[in-house]
Amino acid sequence: MSVVPVTISHTVELEIDGENVRVREGATILDACRAQGRDQPTLCYGDTLTPINACRVCVVEVEGSRVLVPSCARKAEDGMVVRTDTERVRHSRKMVLEFLGSSVDLTTAPNVDGWMEEYEAKPERYGPPAPPAPEGARDRAQAGHHHAGDGQTAATVAQPVKVDNESYIRDYAKCILCYKCVEGCGTDWQNTFAIAVAGRGFDARISTEYAAPLPDSACVYCGNCIAVCPTGALMFKSEHDMREDGTWDESEQTVTETICSYCGVGCSLELHVQDNSIVKVTSPLDHGITRGNLCVKGRFGYQYVQNRPDEE
């Protein structure tokens, strides 16, 4: 007779904003907040990615802790007392949003406008937004090549949108260095390692190896980096082009769920359609097969649907 092992799931109980919450052992404070219906703002956190605590916008106050802790990574503990809306928490979130908003273009980051209003963040009090320096700006400056044209130095010239393929674009003026794209391309999912963090400190940036164009890099165009990007720094070229033309309108889009027809794996697709044309493809994060990930065919291979023969 075979014996089936039984796994006992333990739970922990903690207090969040005066209410007792019970969650499974190993759950984070963010999990506990969501179980209570008190979701916290997040940018660098992804449901399918390893938390790396980069943006610090989800911080909460824990009784007995000297510093605010990131709710996305801190494990819930028995007897823990958490406060999510204290003056200290609100001030910290306000400052983080202001710092980000004063240095990065957040216009295509979902929910950020609401958080700015909720925490009364005013990035403009730090002056006009600073454009991101182009790749290699410090190297050129140290080499004595200070002028970049029109009287500007290399360090003050904004990095242009990188359009070097027909699938997706990279707009590093919107990058907050959350590392979600690096995680998705790396050990969390794709294991391609086409992109990584280059440079240190203020020179840190997301880049391909040796800053090579995407067609010359290890990129396999799965688009999983786009799926997790929280700000639109990585974006479908179709969406980028429509935004540039002023025709992108999510209120006019419908989303149809279907199964990818390219192979027998059974990946679930979400087809975003506007004006009877597919404008981008995503996959549900809670799907048991894809977990939000797709391959190049599933993510970008939908053009054949639009190639309808001319009606006679």
Keywords:
about 300 residues, alpha+beta, Ubiquitin-like (UB roll), Alpha-Beta Plaits, 2 domains, five-stranded mixed beta sheet, three-stranded antiparallel beta sheet, 9 helices, about 20% helix
Give a short overview:
By secondary structure, this protein is an alpha+beta fold.
Can you characterise this structure?
- Strand 10 (254-259) and strand 11 form a beta hairpin.
- The chain folds into 2 domains: 11-130, Ubiquitin-like (UB roll); 156-306, Alpha-Beta Plaits (2-Layer Sandwich).
- It has a 5-stranded mixed sheet with strand order 2-1-5-3-4, with helices on both faces. It has a 3-stranded antiparallel sheet with strand order 10-11-12.
- The protein is globular.
- The protein has 312 residues and is an alpha+beta fold.
- The protein starts with 10 loop residues before the first strand and ends in a 6-residue tail after the last helix.
- The protein has helices at 29-35, 87-103, 112-118, 137-142, 180-185, 224-228, 237-245, 296-300, 303-306, and strands at residues 11-16, 19-24, 59-62, 69-70, 81-83, 168-170, 195-198, 205-208, 234-236, 254-259, 268-274, 277-282.
- The protein has 9 helices and 12 strands.
